[in-house]
Amino acid sequence: MFSPAAMIVAGICLIGWGLHAAHRLKRPLDLLAALAVPAGVILGLSGALLATVPGFFQG
Questions:
Q1: Potential cystine with 30: which of 21, 25, 43, 59 (Cβ 3.0-4.6 Å)?
Q2: Contacts of 42 (CB under 8 A, 6+ apart)
Q3: Computed over its alpha carbons, how large is the radius of gyration of the chain?
Q4: Do 15 and 41 form a contact (C-beta atoms < 8 A)?
Q5: Cα(51)–Cα(30) distance, rounded to whole angstroms?
């Protein structure tokens, strides 16, 4: 799958971009940026979980 470190970095980048762009962009695109923030949180937390417990999502 993906590297946990890459997932954490991508999650932080999504959060940073989403928070900044949600206030900067016009009406239709700010919704996309606002939805990127929770996606970044989920991605970052999943990466942190996989970094601490490597086989967590495997059956």
A1: 25
A2: 11
A3: 13
A4: yes
A5: 32
Query: 20-55: per-residue pLDDT in tens?
Result: 999 999 999 999 999 999 999 999 999 999 999 988
Total-model pTM: 0.88
Token representation of residue 39: 């996606």
User: How far apart, in whole angstroms, are the C-alpha atoms of residue 14 and residue 40?
Assistant: 5
**Dist. CA 39–CA 53, nearest whole Å:** 21
> Identity (one letter) of the amino acid at 38?
P
**24: exposed, middle or buried (Cβ count in 10 Å: 0-12, 13-18, 19+):** exposed
